[in-house]
UniProtKB/TrEMBL annotation:
InterPro entries: ASCH_domain (IPR007374), DUF984 (IPR009326), PUA-like_sf (IPR015947). Residues 54-173 form the ASCH domain. Signal peptide: none annotated. Pfam families: ASCH (PF04266). SUPFAM superfamilies: PUA domain-like (SSF88697). SMART domains: ASCH. It comes from Cellulomonas humilata. This is ASCH domain-containing protein. It comes from the Bacteria.
Length: 183
């Protein structure tokens, strides 16, 4: 045996991540009312195909944000609409599901969007800032933190009238207690 590290074949890392997402979805889907019999009697693609997955990033702050989602303190997020447009994503819709992964790509939470609103940056309220549970939870710190971030990403496109997508969500899985029976 040698100390030389062998790189995995092309595509294997993505396949491992896909397997982790699929296994997580299999465990979590009962919490949204998708039953085990779907595999036998047929289900819709929404029942079988895992929802999109994403992360807050891969640093310590991202792990902290995920921990706040898992313990129930963080129930909202915000993105500049221009950021979504840059990467070709649409606004989320009420009822959308998503899987949040940690910095290593391990699925950790299933979320359901409960509210979506687009407002100018300077119209974001204290209630939303508190629901994001970042920094000290105040509107002042929310504005400072997000303005700095969006100026870095958007440069001159940032202004107080910048459209911001405010999303509220609920943690569907994991939860305490058994998966509800749906079959």
């Amino acid at each position: 045996m040698t100390d030389q590290q062998v790189e995995p074949p092309e595509g294997v890392e993505g396949a491992v991540e896909d397997e982790r997402i699929a296994a997580f979805w299999q465990a979590a889907r009962g919490h949204v009312g998708f039953g085990k019999l779907d595999a036998i009697v047929g289900g819709t693609p929404e029942d079988v195909v895992p929802p999109p997955s994403w992360s807050y990033g891969d640093d310590a702050e991202a792990e902290d944000l995920l921990a706040r989602v898992l313990d129930g303190r963080k129930t909202a997020t915000a993105l500049a609409v221009a950021e979504l447009e840059q990467v070709g994503l649409e606004l989320p819709r009420v009822g959308d599901l998503s899987i949040v992964v940690d910095g290593e790509g391990t699925p950790r939470a299933l979320l359901r969007t409960t509210e979506v609103e687009v407002v100018p940056f300077d119209q974001v309220g204290a209630e939303h800032a508190a629901a994001e549970a970042e920094d000290d939870g105040t509107l002042e710190s929310w504005r400072t933190q997000h303005e700095e971030s969006w100026r870095r990403v958007l440069g001159e496109a940032f202004s107080p009238s910048l459209d911001v997508m405010l999303e509220r969500f609920e943690l569907i899985y994991p939860t305490s207690g058994p998966t509800p029976a749906v079959d």
